[in-house]
Amino acid sequence: MSAVPLPFSGPLLEEAFQYWRGKAGDRRMPSRTDLDPVEIPKLLTHVALLDVVGPSRYRFRLIGTAIADEQGLNATGRELSEAVTGPELRDHVIALCDECVRERRPLYSECLFFSPESGLIERHTKRLFMPLSQDGETVNMIFQLEIFLHIDPMARERHFIEPRSFKEIAHALL
Q: How far apart are the C-alpha atoms of 147 and 125, rounded to whole Å?
């Protein structure tokens, strides 16, 4: 029997997913205590850990430097609803977290972001949301990996402090 191909490619995404799956073993999902940063040094700058604090409420427990640099702020300790700018993007990311929590399965999403000046694509993001559970059933954290690709080199300087229009181009429950 052959394995189902993953809906994404890239060494960091693949490593993160295989790491999460390996830590889950024969369980539905691993717990936070199963994760060891020493085992995933190449991933750390692209990792965020989000606590589930209530229905559609998530708080960044940890945010990697690549994500903080891209967002233009370190959101550690902040709620996702206050850290993500622009109501459309905020609602989209909360909905992705909600789906991961509700389905208790990893979720992959890719988006294109457009320049507010030209309307051209300026960056491409790839996000992998992986549920964590203390009791094996209820998702209490999300282990997220986020990759940023810059089409417009100036996009790196503009961060995400100013809201951008975007379009989701891939969405898959794993």
A: 6
